[in-house]
Amino acid sequence: MSTRTFFDYYGHVKPPAAFAVLDASVAAERERLASSAQAVQRSELANLAFEEIVASCAQAGAALEPHAMRALLERGLALGDRPLRDYLIASGYAAAAQLVHSAEPPRAGEPLLRQEEIVELHARATRLLPDARPGAWRITTSAALRSGMVPPPFWLVPREVAGYVDRFSSPPSERGSSMVFIADAHERFTRIHPFSAGNGRVARLVTNLLLRRLGYPPFFVRRTQLARYRAALARADARDPWPLAAFVARSILAGLGRLASAGDAASLRPLTEFVGAYGREALYKAAQRGRLRTVRKGRALFTTEAWLGDYLGGASRSRPKV
User: Fold this and answer.
1) Comparing C-alpha atoms, which of 105, 58, 62 is closest to residue 84?
2) Less Cβ crowding at N or C end of the chain, within 10 Å?
3) Do residues 209 and 253 share a domain?
4) Burial 121-138, CB ≥16 within 10 A → b, else e
């Protein structure tokens, strides 16, 4: 693809209906979030940040269980029998993630992203892995990515990164979708592949830095979602942005739902409790498509009677096929 990103390329194309519904749900949930208790939000945001670290380290091959991750980050203990490299990856990634999760929204005129921040994120994430050349651009040509896309030659990396920062230093236009903007940023970084190692980790860190500065919770990929995520990323490499944009939107929508409902946790009930009255397939499809507000905790989905009422009221007016 040329320096023009797929966001630019597809900017004039009407998105698929499924993505449009998700995108609208993200906007609505973010608006609801504004009225929630900030103290409770901070606590739940910290939980999301920790889950993102666990998930991203697992994606990098360092699959520590949550209790082992907490012991490593809070007490410096390496519990379990994982290889030493796993703990080094986790410790470095957590240090970089802390920089992301503590980032402040940009002031007027300030950019969303700076090139030195990308370098710093890589340096932190790989600080205990000298073979990754922390904070240095790659100096070799990379093999084709999993999708078949070939990264640019190493001598073009500085120029490609400069163009990337220029493209994503400003927020999306008012008529543009933030979710497509984020998906575009994520896909393009993985395609540039600027470092000799740790590119996936830094792609996730940069993605979450942009989200943080745009006022969204972190994006992450659970173990059970890896195959779907990789397929969506490959489609984005082939100029089909919608599966990846939808994947990102679902992750952000889940995070927003948890933040918005954190102050009203007593009202949450497992979705399975409503299955008998309304049908399992209909409810789970509605949740998957963003029409029914839910919160995921582990592998279970939760909702409230009020959210179910909102969904049923909207369904009776529009009668969508769920």
Assistant:
1) 62
2) N
3) yes
4) bbbbbbbbeeebbbbebb
- Tell me the sheet residues that pair with 270: 302
167 within a domain of the structure (yes/no): yes
pLDDT at 63 over 90: yes
**103-137 confidence digits (pLDDT tens):** 988 888 899 999 999 999 999 999 999 999 999 99
pTM: 0.80
Tell me the residue range of the domain where 293 lies. 268-322
- Pairing of β 269-270 and β 295-297: unpaired
Q: What Rg do the C-alpha atoms of the chain give, in angstroms? A: 20
Question: How many angstroms separate the CA atoms of 320 and 322, rounded?
Answer: 6
Q: How confident is the model at residue 98 (pLDDT cuts 50, 70, 90)?
A: very high
Query: Is 1 among the domain residues?
Result: no
Q: Which residues of 243-281 are buried (b: 16+ CB within 10 A; e: fewer)?
A: bbbbbbbbbbbbbbbbbbbbbeeeebeebeebeeebeee
